[in-house]
Amino acid sequence: MTFQPRMSNKIDGFAVLNGPNRRHWNGVAVDLWDVACAPGAGGYYVGADPRLLVILEAPAFPTSQLAISTRKDERFQLSDHRAMSYIPANMEIWAHMTHQSRIRHIDFHFNIDDLTQRLMEDVDSTVLAKPRLQFFDPRIYALAELVAQECVNPNPLHDLYGDGLTVALFIDLMQIGKRKVRKRSQLAAWQMRRTVDYLEANCLRSVRLQELADLTGLSQSHFSHAFKASTGVAPHQWQMRARIEKVKCLLSDGTLPLATIAVETGFTDQAHFTKVFRRIVGTTPAHWQKSHRR
Known about the structure:
Blueprint lengths: L6 E19 L2 E20 L3 E7 L8 E4 L14 E4 L5 E5 L3 E10 L1 H8 L5 H4 L3 E4 L2 H14 L7 H16 L14 H13 L7 H8 L3 H12 L3 H19 L4 H7 L5 H12 L3 H8 L2
Helix pairs in contact: 3-4, 6-7, 9-10
């Protein structure tokens, strides 16, 4: 379902000249507005989702004086006609125009759940909850301009273009750094012992990952990463090495033909058996058997 921002307001003195030109990208809804503001225009806005307001075009001070604050009785004059404001979710914002003006602005509404999934990490809740009013960032402004151009593009570009711009803007706004690589935890000694014993006892058949995960009380993903952190190889590779050790015993005995050994040790055919054996041991079963026959 497309993300729909939830906002309410009570405003007076604003007339929409053009807009909103709305576009949706994964986790972000964007509205581009062109409005005329009468002297004394103003009101309040509150949204259920965090958002960023970027003034793209407005007469420079002192021709235009727009005040934004988090309290009705406190008003702050914008120091730059291209200023921007980040407003956290459920925070009431008051706006007031002291002169007649025309303003073109773009609003970014953020769906934090969707963006968290895209980034594959949680966003710092303290940063999300902290308002930033009347600031200017040249990189965010440049990204906002590019998004605005795409909002009115009669021939929209691929969705990945808007996706990239909006997520880049959000990362810059939230100052999200490079993810730290987490060191995977290893299996506990009892888990490792139980897993190895099971693999060696059942190495002649295909052991499912879920079987091993159930033995250790872990999810399949957790078990797979922990096993590799403990041994340096994947569970399947460990099982195959255990199978090859069984094969070596049969080869050393020398009583069974290679084709029979291949079938009895779980390989699809002798060609598959030879391929796997060469990859692990470094030579063919026949050559190994000649030098290791009892």
